[in-house]
Amino acid sequence: MKIAFSTQGSSLEDPIEPALGRCRNFLIVDLASGAFRVEPNPGAKASGGAGVRAAEALVAAGVERVITGSAGPNAKAVLEAVGIAIEEGRRGAIRDHLPAFPAHAAPAAEKVAASPALSPPSRPNPAGWCFCERCGYRSEEDQGLPCFKLRCPGCGSTLERRFGG
Question: Using one digit for the tens of pLDDT, what is the confidence trace for 51-77?
Answer without folding.
Answer: 999 999 999 999 999 999 999 899 999
